[in-house]
């Protein structure tokens, strides 16, 4: 009986990556120096950037830049990157959101330069501008903007205020001096 390799993740991982002469992901990073380079690059990526680069590269190199071939999941990853850093706050408008999405798209285009040819960068540009300027996605994004997260207080490791007052100080013996709570007499 022949096993369907697409249902078995272990077998699927051993199959060649489509469009790549290597046999597996492990072979792509078989050389420690290459693996270190890849990890260094990934560490420099901003949130959602690595996924966006991977999806756009696949779109351009394998699908001819046709954004209609993107799955919902792929669109979600790209939109997460181009929306990152824009929050619901006073003064937020659809025009400012569009400008932010276009700026993020330009940054993603710049990140794509090492992975595509000059001709392909035009396809990247077209695809990203279509995604960034999509009026339906722009409206949906604006209507569902999240509130800007509060800046954490730097006085405590987790940003929460401690139970002692801000002017309280620890004495060398570990007791708290200047605390506002009542102490036994």
SS-derived structural category: mainly alpha
Uncertain runs with pLDDT below 50, 5 residues or more? Answer: 1-20, 156-185
How would a crystallographer describe the biggest sheet? 2 strands, antiparallel
Question: What is the share of helical residues?
Answer: 40-55%
Arithmetic mean pLDDT: 76
Structure notes:
This protein is an all-alpha fold. It has helices at residues 9-14, 25-28, 32-44, 49-63, 72-83, 94-112, 118-132, 135-143, and strands spanning 169-170, 176-177. Strand 1 and strand 2 form a beta hairpin. Helix 4 (49-63) packs across helix 5. The longest helix has 19 residues, at 94-112. It is globular, with a radius of gyration of 25 Å. The termini are far apart.
Keywords:
mainly alpha, disordered C terminus, two-stranded antiparallel ribbon, 8 helices, 185 residues, single chain
Short description:
50% of the residues lie in helices and 2% in strands. It has 185 residues and is mainly α.
